[in-house]
Amino acid sequence: MPKLGKAGSLQSRQAIVHSLVHIESWAIDLSWDIIARFGKQESMPREFFTDFVKVAQDEGRHFTLLGKRLEELGSSYGALPAHDGLWESSIATSEDLLARLAIEHCVHEARGIDVLPTTISRFRNGGDKETADLLEKVIYPEEITHCAAGVKWFKYLCLRSKNPAIGDSLASQGSSDRQSGITVEENEEIIKKFHAIVRTHFRGPLKPPFNEEARKAAGFGPQWYEPLAVKDINPRIKCGW
Questions:
Q1: Region 13-39: what's the mean pLDDT?
Q2: What is the dihedral of CA 53, 218, 12, 85, to 10 degrees?
Q3: How many CB atoms lie within 10 A of CB 180?
Q4: Residue-level pLDDT at 166
Q5: Residue among 51, 17, 13 nearest 34 (CA)
Q6: What is the domain extent for residue 66?
Q7: CB 85, CB 50: distance < 8 Å
Q8: CA–CA distance, 159 with 166 (Å, rounded to integer)
Q9: 114 CB contacts (<8 Å, ≥6 apart)?
């Protein structure tokens, strides 16, 4: 794997954009996969399909725009090696929709919105206004909505598991706790479930700093992710004091 660098050189800019194109290629597949793999199987409401079709369309557009920009920078997709972390985690969560939503959308995509502002600044400081504008005006705001879709449907599944009769009404009310009538106790249970799933399916702690503003816009606050930034040395042993 080549080092991405800080966008100060053409080679670094090519490597970063190539990495982003590769991420978008997996994101397209995973958006359709979550629909085909889990939609009917989990009896998800129509809005679930609508949300992730929209995500897939966005990711496809991102792939096309970033691929074109990569060619303008003198390279092309496939010219450099790339990691398959997203696909590996999708395999690990292939039988559990809650885990898929938590890891792909609330961990990996959330990490993307954490680092994109810095990436944008690096391109702008390196004199690449075109790439910076593409990331800032198109990719970044839409990735926040993709993270929001994961948060929304994670909450939905947790609440539906306790009261199946309220499922469809919750789905139509969006991701806001107030809008969907989530109580403090229910919210705490949802967050505990999220922590348990991430600790099971994601290796190591989450990496700060966190983009709190973007994460809040996506529907989840620091209580979701800050406890996961602390390495749990031995989760099977309870503290004795």
A1: 96
A2: -60
A3: 19
A4: 63
A5: 51
A6: 10-227
A7: no
A8: 8
A9: 207, 209, 210, 211, 214, 215
In this structure, what token pair is assigned to residue 38?
């889990």
- Has residue 237 been placed in a domain? no
Does residue 234 lie within any of the structural domains?
Answer: no
Is residue 5, in this structure, part of any structural domain at all? no
Q: DSSP characters for 166-189?
A: GHHHHHTT-S-TTTTT--HHHHHH
Check residue 230 and give its pLDDT: 82
Residue among 203, 216, 138, 209 at smallest CA distance from 175: 216
> At 73, is the secondary structure helix, strand, or coil?
coil
Cβ atoms 212, 144 nearer than 8 A:
no
Which of these, 126, 127, 153, 121, lies nearest to 140 by C-alpha position? 121
One-letter amino acid of 12:
S
Q: Is residue 236 part of a domain?
A: no
**CB 46, CB 14: distance < 8 Å:** no
Q: What pTM did the predictor assign? A: 0.88
